[in-house]
């Protein structure tokens, strides 16, 4: 490496892990001797655990999203708009697919970007497990665009029902929604839908209320929220059923049709809207990762230092990385707290690798799980030194901790001062902004 060439660190994926790492590297090294490049197929970032609120209309994503171009200008890195197509490890280059406009016209041609160090942080997508009809008939919550699409279709169906009731007060018109997957996403969305239904009467749908929602939550396992203690999962189920959600456990979906879900037990669940949230897998790369070893879920298998098994110059963090700690038989779960911790370790190890000193071992600290049932309830468990083990939490304390997770993300992405200001602004917006985003 010649002395006049900058060290180029390329990060593919601007999710929680990638964006936090880009900020840290840009803040530490700037542009004098380093070139930090973040590549993402979107122009803005929004914290993925918030997508269920965007889908229900409870959150205006335009207030919480981070524009990569303005963010990179502030923190000293560069942003490339594009999608990873493949890696050439020999030439140390990433190949990016052409960028097309909505009419299929080329905006940016296919090109390559060199790297000295590469960090893969391109995240995950919903895993439909090859279930027939799911790709054609179901909606997903992997991106803001998908959440916006769900919200628009939800509002259209609510408007249809409201109109039918205005014309015929005796009408039994309903909005039927089937959600597959009893994990955090499915449970949180089911509750958020009732919060949205309560708010619609304030915005022109005077004859519409939550009684017109038929929400069915289908889970193939024996109970919802398997990451939580059984008592808390039962409490969440009870809260959902009080709201009006029909919770069906031990029911596997075998196919999706335009009219609803078919199940292994022969039960047909009719639905106007179908959302699949039953599992995740690493986002697929069109032409592969040049021989990097992958897990069964297409995640890059990494060493304890978060370097790939096959190339010490390539790291993988977040949902696209598979790391199984010594003594464990399962990899670290794809969760926001894991992504945050991996970004910290990757930052430290990139600095150490460039300085020629030994790298750190990634140690995952499970701080527990929290699930928000909108404004109705929050349940979860906390783990760690603070509570001396595992502690079940519910109500206001759980809600406070749940909101603190997002505030920590804001601090990591924007820095302490700007992050604190954004938290204050979000508090003010609760009083001055509409309860629902209806456009």
Give me the secondary-structure topology.
Blueprint lengths: L6 E6 L3 H14 L4 E7 L3 E2 L5 H6 L4 H4 L1 E2 H8 L2 E4 L2 E5 L4 E4 L2 E2 L5 E3 L2 E4 L2 E4 L3 E3 L7 H4 L6 H24 L7 E6 L3 H17 L12 E7 L10 H14 L2 E4 L3 E5 L2 E4 L4 E3 L2 E4 L3 E3 L17 E2 L12 E3 L4 E2 L13 H20 L12 E6 L3 E8 L4 E6 H20 L1 H17 L7
Family: Belongs to the NADH dehydrogenase family.
Pfam families: Pyr_redox_2
Protein name: NADH dehydrogenase
Short summary:
The chain has about 450 residues and is α/β, with parallel strands linked by helices. It has helices spanning about 15-30, 50-55, 60-65, 70-75, 135, 145-165, 185-200, 230-245, 335-355, 395-415, 415-430, and strands at about 5-10, 35-40, 45, 65, 80, 85-90, 95, 100, 105-110, 110-115, 115-120, 125, 175-180, 215-220, 245-250, 255, 260-265, 270, 275, 280, 300, 315, 320, 370-375, 375-385, 390-395.
